[in-house]
Amino acid sequence: MTITVREALERSPLKGAKVLTGDVGLDRTISAVTVMDAPDVINWLKGNEFVITSGYSIKDNPLSLETLISDLARVNAAGLGIKLRRFIDQIPPSIVDLAISLEVPIVVIPFGVSWVEIITSIHQEIMQRQSELIVQGERTFRKFSLSLLQQGGFLEISKVLYELISCPVIILDYQGNSYTQGWELPPQQVEAIARQAIAASDWRNSGYYSLEMEDSTVRFLQLEGFPHELALCPIIVENEVTGYIMALADEEAHKKGLYFAIAIEQAAIMCALRTMITFNTKEVRRRFKNRFAQDLLSWNFRDISFARKQAAFVDWVLHDCYSVLAVAIDDLSGYYLAQGADEAHVQGVLEELYKSVTHIDRVYKLDLIFLENSDSLLILKPQDRRESDKHARDQVLEFAALLQRQVNEDLEDLTVSIGISRLIRDITKLRDGQKQALSALKYGRMLTGGNSVWHYDDLGIYRILCEFDKETELVRYYEDTIAKLEEYDREHKAELVKTLTAYFNNDFSLQKAADELYVHYNTMRYRLERINEITGLDVLNSHDRLNLQVGLKIAQLLKSVHRMGGTA
């Protein structure tokens, strides 16, 4: 604990002492008082000492005073107190100017003041402050301990901390997502600030400083564009950063000095203890939740009333109507194979997916229900039974887009795809929604690749086609319709498949298809005749036309399956 030179000058015996250097350097801190009895006193200083002298050791060497001032600045001494008119009559103006430039205060000690008075006064004040800090620290520890013993969570800890430091406080997870709210700002803005602070939280960064504690984990920083100074302290469990405490370090923080940092560190320790205490409990609860979700999808309940009681037991609210979403990370195994990572890392990324979804659920208060699969996450999103299927579809697509953006942001180099079911108005039939969502996920990825969002209804005829074995009926159907056209295109560098697609896409209009392909109308007629000859099917016959349309869809599906190395 320390006091400043300014504070020392406000107390007896230095009260009223003349300061030759004006207001410069008066906020330097004093950790001890040292009497200079030899010219080489600088070799024994550790920093923040207030050096007092009669000038005897330097009276015969005028240059030594200049050297002394420079050395005091170099070792970050608090300042120089000197008695004049005994061995040195005055301080030359050049020395005063040097001290001002180096921000080393020079105090003229009153002649009748003894060294013992100065040393005793300052050291007593420092010891008194240290004693007060210990008492405050013990009181702080008791408050936090009481909160912990009363099963207080992060919210209770943040409230206790706010009472102690009188500054807005928020507790965050390791990504910057908020566990608590204590700022008069929207949660999204607070979390954006937090992420910016965490991203810059290299403890070796010279832009950070701690309040008088070399080993303090509390860091203070000023973010560009944010008007307030921030204090950031990590929550560490088993050498892993599991979260942060962030506070606005306003004038009140600096008034409290070292106690401010100690209180935040104590709160961080309590958060770590709470995390350790609740870890197993959370894991058990999570397993119970997963089991409940499985039972819900399979409807292993005797009635809805019992299901609602079971939902309440795991802190979920059971609604009457749901859309089911299947969320999966794209090519997770391939990504980690390329990175040389192991299975544990894969599970770690799946955990990040879970955390991202739970964060959205918490922020937007959506009452989501989750089910963790081995490589995906099933989400049950409540819907309003009174809404139309179309409106419900639009809402869940909007939610899926939000979810995808959040997850892609959290997982950085990875992307996710989402499959969505139809609206399930009977919760005893949620298994149907699960199948639809997984189908939309699987076949949507086949058709368009990763980073996709597919609603089951958007699959269209693919809902039927994807249920067939590609090695039997689908392949035969393809061979009977489109395969010969593709072979002809390869051998003759033609565009019959492209022509047929354009013809169908333009509602069987030869002219519109010709315009799309930038060919003459007669060219289109000739190509359609060649298609008829090669396939043995007539594009003007409704039955044959349907076969060709379905054949094109199957060709696209088979190519997607082949590209992904899977099966239909």
Describe this protein's structure.
This protein has 568 residues and is of the alpha/beta class. The chain folds into four domains: 3-125, Udp-n-acetylmuramoylalanyl-d-glutamate--2,6- Diaminopimelate Ligase, Chain: A, domain 1 (3-Layer(aba) Sandwich); 127-278, Dynein light chain 2a, cytoplasmic (Beta-Lactamase, 2-Layer Sandwich); 319-459, Alpha-Beta Plaits; 465-564, Arc Repressor Mutant, subunit A (Orthogonal Bundle), CATH 1.10.10.2840. It has 20 helices and 16 strands. The protein has helices spanning 5-9, 62-74, 93-101, 115-149, 154-165, 187-199, 251-256, 258-298, 304-313, 332-339, 343-364, 389-410, 430-448, 462-465, 470-481, 483-492, 496-505, 510-517, 521-535, 542-564, and strands at residues 3-4, 18-19, 29-30, 32-35, 49-53, 79-82, 106-108, 169-173, 219-221, 230-237, 240-248, 322-329, 369-372, 376-382, 416-420, 453-455. The strands form four sheets. It has a five-stranded mixed beta sheet with strand order 2-7-6-5-4, with helices on both faces. Strands 13-14-12-15-16 form a five-stranded mixed beta sheet. Helix 13 links the parallel strand 15 and strand 16 (453-455). Helix 4 packs parallel to helix 8 (258-298), helix 11 (343-364) packs across helix 12 and helix 15 (470-481) crosses helix 20. The longest helix has 41 residues, at 258-298.
